[in-house]
Structure formats: C-alpha cells, structure tokens
Amino acid sequence: MLLALFMVMYALSQIDINNVKDFSDSMDKAFEIPVVQQKTINNPQKTKILEEKRSLLKTFSTTEARVEMQNVDISDQKVEINSLKTQIKSIESSINKDAVEFKNIENLIEKNLGNIGEISVSRETRGLIIRLKDTVLFDPGSDIIKDNAQVTLDKLAGILREIPNSIRIEGHTDSQPINTPRFPSNWELSTARATNIIKYLINQHNINPQKFSAVGYGEYMPLKESVLEDNQSINRRVDIVILSSATKIFEPESNIKR
After folding, report:
1. Which candidate, 168, 172, 133, places its Cα nearest to that of 247?
2. How many other CB atoms are there within 10 angstroms of residue 42's CB atom?
3. pLDDT (tens digit per residue) in 168-195
4. What is the C-alpha separation between 95 and 89, in angstroms, rounded?
5. In 3-state terms, what secondary structure has residue 167?
6. What is the pTM of this model?
C-alpha cells in the first residue's frame, strides 16, 4: 500500500508546471475566457487584470444597452412631437375654417331671425352660442315646445343641418325650485327641454342625431346673480352651442358610423 502511494506521488512530481500553463493559455485563446485554475498557477497580477477586463466589458455592454434604449426613447419622442405638430396644424386650420363658418351663421341668423329680440349670438372658446330665452320656446315650468316657437326652430334647423360641427343643446333654469311629479327638480326640467328641442330638430328636419348632445344644467350655470327678477329671466334660457372643431378631440367618438 505504501509502495503504491509512493509511486503516485512520484508521478505527480514529474508533471511539468509549464505544460499546465500552456494548456491554460490555449484555453484562454480558444474561448476568450480565462481558466479559473490559472489564478492558482499564474501571476496573481495578471489574474486581477483579466478580472478587471471582464468587469469593464460587462459595464460596456450594459452602458451600450442603455444608450440603445435611450436612442429608442428619443426616436419615439420625435414621432410623438411630429404627431402633435400635425394635430396643432389641423386644429389651427379648423379654427380658421370655423371663424369663416361662424361669421356666415351669424349673418344668416341676423337675416332670418334678426327681428326676434329674444335671440342672441355670441362666440366663446368652445364655439358659437345661439341663445334663446325660455319664453320663446316654453311656457313656465313646461318642457313642451310652444306652437309659435316651431317657426323659430324651423329657421334654425335650415342653418344647423348644413354645418359639420357637433351641436350641444343646453337647458338652463332660474333658481326658483320646482317640485312636480314630472319634474322633481330643475335638473329634470332643464334636461327635458334640451332633449325635446333635439327631438324636434331630428324628427321634423331629419338632422343627423349623432351631431347632437343634450345637457341640463338646472340653475347652476347662471349668467347673472339670481337676486332680481330681471336676472332670473336672463338665466332661464336654452343655448344652442355649435362646438368649435378644435374641441372635437375632447369629445367621445363612436366606432360605428351611421
């Protein structure tokens, strides 16, 4: 047993350390990865350099990946900026077109309805406002359109039918409370009035329903303080709002076109 152990120890003593080093170097060159055993055989300083090189390569790869991601982000941002520029140009074009269209509508209303003192036209950021006092359209506390109001709506329908813009009908009341089985509050009354005007324009003049929306504000969007009776009558109104094309991007859209 001792003889066998002696023979093994002798054989190991005859292994050439340089041959081991040569083999390790060849592995480095073949796979470009330092062999782990080299640390115990080779110069520790060289091992440290190789480890630093590996660390630098890893850092470089990480940095390169980050730069590529940043380039992608910058490219995406440029696309988004160009898209916004296109939208802005489109909005500017729509605003200019609206200005011409609104002026034509003002002229038509002045020509066809100028003798009705209870109708006014004004411009706001959201669009052109055709304002009608409630007495033109309804009896007090009612949502039924008066017979003599239909002539006024018929004239307006001829104008509204031709414009491409969306139209919002807004009902407003004064601050006097209402409490009837049909209208428990001014919310219901103002909304019913706006809705009935839309129904009339659709049913009698075949205007595209998708152009319309109805809003009831009750007494909560007054033009004047509701202390005086004169102010109360000013606040009772229906606004026909021809929305600016620029507001279209904020409006809901349907995927189904009719």
Report:
1. 168
2. 18
3. 999 999 999 999 999 999 999 999 999 9
4. 10
5. strand
6. 0.68
